[in-house]
Design goal:
TIM Barrel; elongated; about 600 residues; 24 helices; alpha/beta
């Protein structure tokens, strides 16, 4: 009996994650995981054996990213054949005692067709090299997984079909709403892939078990379906990503997926042998579903967007005589979003008029501030988004701005952005098609209804544009001149770096009085003496005077926090004597400190 014959009669169980298992067993996060097949075969083989012992009938090769494009990031593009062949042989060796199928794992190239063309990359040849090596290694079937682009997956499937007749599983990654990034419905993509020759179609990654169930409730059950959900949202604990999904919970959700028509079942990120074993035990006597009523939850793409009342701006509130509090709350570095939203709501209740969201500040990866801003608006909280020139080219920047406008987000703060090499992805490329001044000009043109090339947007955006200003710079006059250029480019309010000197607040007020533009002085509540020294010595743009550092020296915990809030109150009071509002900066998501400060400011 082969894989497809078996799948016709019973549920077939796959394995779980390879990457997160490797990390949990000591693999370095910054290395090439696929190379471990050669450098540490016992580590990879042990994972294969553990999945087989847990009851998996299909184990996947450690080759997801082993194509020339992805491997080139590690200088390994010339070892594609070696890595994939070795991955196949290692999995075959681990599987032979149990009569287990070995699937060749193939992932997307992680580049667009346009980028491939610009770089002279033949995507078909890249797939052919990897797939051919896996077939030479003796895999029983091929799994194309975590693809976002149906066209790219069709290309990979075509290559497989031209090389071998073995079964092909085609698995897409999409949100629980059931649409791919292109806007195509998942069910429609499944039809395309079946017509192209896929034996099994399905979804993996992105969604946890519960979200995957919601996804499959809207998917027609005809044909063979696979479901490989993640373990939910990871938490970053002591340098590691930990997933909370308990084995019994995973098994219960997988039973529901089987009821909805999925026949080939396994796990993706965060799912390990214990969850697979629980799934196998819970479903070993389950007979595959024949037909399931489907309730589509996808709205048509042509659904008209309801016209909403325009968002009030912080300038409107200033004009009405209100003291405005802008509060920064950085998007989280992980997909654990709960603390962020609890903090945002607490800050709003305390008196913040809007929450400003940095755009991967200091070149450190965080959740998209556009996504976070959209979710804040759903909660009735006004977002103010930073937009950095570092991470997007001219097309991407304009697309981001148009997306903001479509979501009704009005407040934007253009930034040049810290170079990528200073952050947590030093190998990433900085773009810098434009700088902050040029981006402000682009925003101004969009407010006139035109894009960068002068083509009509068929509507005018209503952005309220701000700019940054660093009063801590040694040459304040130079900063003032640059501020004047920003105002000329369209800035209508100013947000400064954190200030810890009351005299400097007065100096800035005197130096900018003639410009007639609202300035929000940055107020950062210090937490302790160690943090004070860190900020002064290691964070660019922050200067803490000697007397403030002395006040904080040696103070920790409650004493440090109390002293830091006292200093922040002094700066806020001084600022409000000269300016119509303040800019409160939340230290490392410690929103309770900023909440207390916002309450104090609102009471002045």
């Amino acid at each position: 009996m082969n894989f497809l014959d078996e799948l016709e009669q019973v549920l077939v169980f796959g394995d779980g994650a390879m990457g997160t298992e490797l990390f949990s067993r000591g693999a370095p996060a910054e290395g090439c995981l696929e190379l471990l097949t050669i450098d540490h075969p016992d580590l990879v083989s042990g994972i294969h054996r553990d999945y087989a012992a847990a009851g998996a009938r299909v184990i996947e090769t450690n080759s997801f990213g082993a194509n020339a494009v992805r491997l080139s990031r590690f200088g390994l593009e010339n070892r594609v054949n070696e890595i994939n062949w070795s991955a196949a042989r290692l999995a075959k060796e681990a599987a032979k005692s149990g009569g287990i199928y070995v699937a060749g794992s193939v992932g997307p190239l992680a580049i667009t067709a346009e980028e491939a063309s610009a770089r002279g990359i033949d995507r078909e040849a890249v797939f052919r090299q990897q797939i051919g090596a896996l077939l030479d290694g003796g895999v029983d079937l091929m799994i194309f997984e975590t693809f976002l682009d149906v066209e790219e997956l069709e290309l990979a499937l075509y290559v497989k079909q031209s090389l071998h007749h073995c079964p092909a599983v085609c698995s897409l990654a999409c949100t629980s709403e059931g649409r791919l990034p292109s806007g195509e419905a998942l069910s429609e993509a499944f039809v395309r892939l079946r017509n192209a020759g896929a034996d099994v179609v399905g979804a993996n990654c992105v969604n946890g078990p519960s979200a995957m169930v919601r996804l499959f409730r809207g998917v027609q059950a005809g044909g063979m379906l696979s479901a490989f959900p993640n373990a939910g949202y990871p938490r970053f604990v002591e340098g590691r990503y930990l997933y909370p999904c308990a084995p019994d919970y995973f098994a219960a959700q997988m039973r529901e997926l089987a009821r909805l028509g999925a026949r080939f079942l396994g796990g993706c990120c965060g799912i390990g042998p214990s969850q697979i074993q629980a799934m196998v035990e819970a479903l070993q006597d389950y007979r595959p579903a024949v037909s399931v009523a489907v309730t589509s939850h996808l709205p048509p793409l042509t659904t008209p967007v309801e016209v909403q009342e325009e968002e009030e701006s912080i300038l409107d509130r200033i004009a009405a005589g209100k003291t405005v509090i802008v509060t920064e709350l950085d998007p989280p570095k992980t997909l654990d979003l709960e603390k962020f939203f609890v903090g945002a709501e607490a800050l709003t209740r305390a008196g913040s008029d809007c929450i400003t969201l940095a755009d991967n500040s200091l070149a450190i990866l965080r959740v998209s501030n556009l996504a976070m801003g959209a979710m804040l608006k759903q909660r009735g909280i006004m977002p103010l988004l930073h937009v950095s020139c570092r991470d997007r080219n001219l097309l991407g920047l304009q697309s981001e701005l148009m997306g903001m406008a479509a979501l009704g987000i009005r407040h934007v703060l253009p930034l040049t952005g810290d170079p990528a090499k200073v952050g947590d992805h030093p190998g990433a490329a900085s773009v810098y098609d434009v700088n902050s001044l040029q981006l402000m000009e682009i925003v101004r043109k969009m407010n006139e209804g035109l894009n960068f090339n002068g083509k009509s947007l068929k509507a005018s955006t209503r952005f309220v544009t701000g700019c940054t200003f660093n009063p801590n710079a040694r040459q304040l006059d130079t900063q003032i001149k640059r501020l004047e250029r920003k105002i000329a480019a369209g800035a209508r309010y100013v947000m400064t770096q954190p200030v810890f000197d009351r005299a400097l607040v007065r100096t800035v007020a005197e130096s900018t009085r003639a410009h007639g533009i609202p300035i929000f002085m940055g107020v950062w509540p210090l937490l302790n003496g160690r943090q004070t020294e860190f900020l002064h010595n290691e964070v660019p743009g922050i200067v803490i005077p000697d007397d403030i550092r002395e006040r904080m020296r040696g103070l920790e915990k409650s004493e440090g926090r109390a002293a830091g809030i006292a200093i922040a109150r002094e700066i806020a009071e001084e600022s409000l004597q000269h300016f119509p509002g303040v800019y409160l900066i939340t230290p490392f998501l410690n929103y309770d400190t900023t909440e207390e400060l916002a309450t104090f400011v609102r009471g002045l």
